[in-house]
Amino acid sequence: MTDFVRAARPNDLGDVTAITGRSTGSIAFIAGGTDLIIAHENLPWPDLIIDITGIAELDFVDVTETAVQIGAATTMSTLDRHKGIRKSLPLLAQASAQVGSAQIRNRATIGGNIASAVPAGDLLPVLKCLEVRIEILRHDGRTEVLEFDDVVVGSGETSLGNGDLITGIVLPLKHGANRISAFAKIGMREVLTIARLNMAIAANYDQAANRVSDIRVVAGAVGPLPLRLPAVEAVFQGRVIDQSLADDFLNALVSEIDNAIPGRYSQSYKRRAIIGLGLDLLRDLFDREFSPALPLMEPV
Amino acid sequence: MLAKDFPQFRPVLPGTRDAAIAITLNVNDQDQVLYVTASDKLSRVLRRSLDLTGLKEGCLEGECGACTVLINDEPVNSCLVLAFQVQGKRILTIEGMEASEGRLSRLQQAFLDKGAVQCGFCTPGMVLSAQGLLNRNPHPDEAEIRHALAGNLCRCTGFQSIVEAIKSVAVQ
Ligand SMILES: Cc1cc2nc3c(=O)[nH]c(=O)nc-3n(C[C@H](O)[C@H](O)[C@H](O)COP(=O)(O)OP(=O)(O)OC[C@H]3O[C@@H](n4cnc5c(N)ncnc54)[C@H](O)[C@@H]3O)c2cc1C
Ligand code: FES
Ligand code: FES
Predict the structure, then answer these.
(1) ipTM
(2) Considering every ligand atom, which ligand is closest to the CA of B58?
(3) Domain that holds residue A20
(4) Per-residue pLDDT band at A190 (split at 50, 70, 90)
(5) pTM
C-alpha cells in the first residue's frame, strides 16, 4: 500500500501486465476519463491509475469481410467517423454518434462504456444485439474471450477483477450483405443526454419478399442490464413489413416496456416516447415512413 | 499574453505530499515541462501552473464546455482529462488562438463582430469548439455547427449570434 496515488502510462500491453502483475494495491484504468473522473469527485482515488490511451494496440478498428475487431481505447468519434463501421455496423456508428457531446465523444471509449456498465450506456444494447465477444487481459497476463453477458453482469457491475483490462471486442460478420440494423435513443433533450431508453435492432432483410429473419431486438436503460425483447422479435415471424406489422411492433414495444419499467414515467409520456423511438427505428431499418399506432395515442 | 511569458513551473499543489510526475507537452506552441500529481485535472493545471485562465471550470462534469481546449486539434473537456494523460500532446487554449501577437483570429473577430460575447464565461470554450469543428470541416452548415456546439452552454446569448459568427467564418 502506498500513501499517495501513483500513475502509469504504459505504451504496450506487455508493460501493462508488468505493472498489474506485481502491483498489490487497488488499480483503476483510465481511458477517456469521462466516467472515472466524475466518479472520483467525492471518492478517494485508488493506489494506482493506469492510463491506457498511449497504447496503440488498444486504439484500432479492423473491418474485414468476415469479422470486425475494435480496440478498447477506440473513441466514440473514431467509431462514428469510421467508414467500415458505418457500412458494416451502422447501429454502432449511430450509437457512438449520439453519445454526449463532441468533446465527450473525442474522449469516451468503447472499453470505458463496457467497463462502466451503466444501465444507460448507449453501446451496451448495441454490443449485446451484435453478439460481440469481449477480449480480456487478466492482471496476471492470461487472456480470455468472453460473451457480453459474462462481462457486464449488473448495474455498474462487471466480472472484471482488480487489474483486469478489456483489450477489445470482436465479432464475426456471420450475416450477409442483407443484414440491416439501427439504433435509437430517447432522453430529456435532443443532445448531450443520458438515455432514458435506447434500443438496437438487427435483422436479415429479404427485400424481394419484404420480410425479415434472424431478428434481435435489445433495449437498454430499462433495467440493470440490456434486455433482449423476444416478444417484440416474435411479431416479425413470417410477416411482410407493412403498416399492420408496424402497429403490432409498436404495441409489443409498449407492453414490453410497460412490463420492464412499470410506473416509472407517466403512462402517456412513456407510450409516446416509445412509439416515437419505434417509428425512428422502423424508418431507419426499412427506409420508409410508418404512422403511429393510433389507438395508443392519447390526447395530451 | 502568450504562454512563453509565464514561468515554466510552479508547484501544482504546494504543501501536498503527492509524488510529482514530470510531463512534457506543447501548449500554445510552447514546449513545457510540468510537474503534476496523478489525480490533477488538466483544467486545473493549465489554470494554476500556466496561468491560462481563459478556460473556465464551470460544472466539472462535462456538461457546460467552459473548460474546452483542443488536444491534438480535437475539442475536449479539460475538466475530464487527467494532466498526466496529455504527456507528449499538443494543446491549444484560447490564449494561443491569436493570429499573431495582439491580433485576433478571424473566428475570434467574428464573435466580436456578431455580438456573440456577452458575459464571456462560455466564450473561450465556444471558440475552441468552433475551431475544432472548422479544423475538420471548413464549411459546416448550421445543423453541423449546432451539433458541434451541443457540449457548450451559454446562458446569455441564446446561441443565435454564436452560430452566426461561426457561419460568417465558415462560408468564406
Ligand atoms: C457529459 C457526459 C455525457 C455523457 N453522455 C453519454 C451518453 O450519451 N451515452 C453513454 O453511453 N455514455 C455517456 N456518458 C458516459 C461516458 O462518456 C461513457 O460511458 C464512456 O464510454 C466512458 O468511457 P471512458 O473511456 O471515458 O471511460 P473512463 O472514464 O476512462 O473509465 C470508466 C470506467 O471503466 C474502466 N475502464 C475504462 N477502460 C477500461 C478497459 N479497457 N478495461 C477495463 N476497465 C476499463 C475505468 O477504470 C472506469 O472504472 C457521458 C458522460 C458525460 C460526462
Ligand atoms: S467545467 Fe468542464 S465541462 Fe463544465
Ligand atoms: S456569453 Fe455569457 S454564458 Fe455565454
Answers:
(1) 0.92
(2) 2
(3) 6-51
(4) low
(5) 0.93
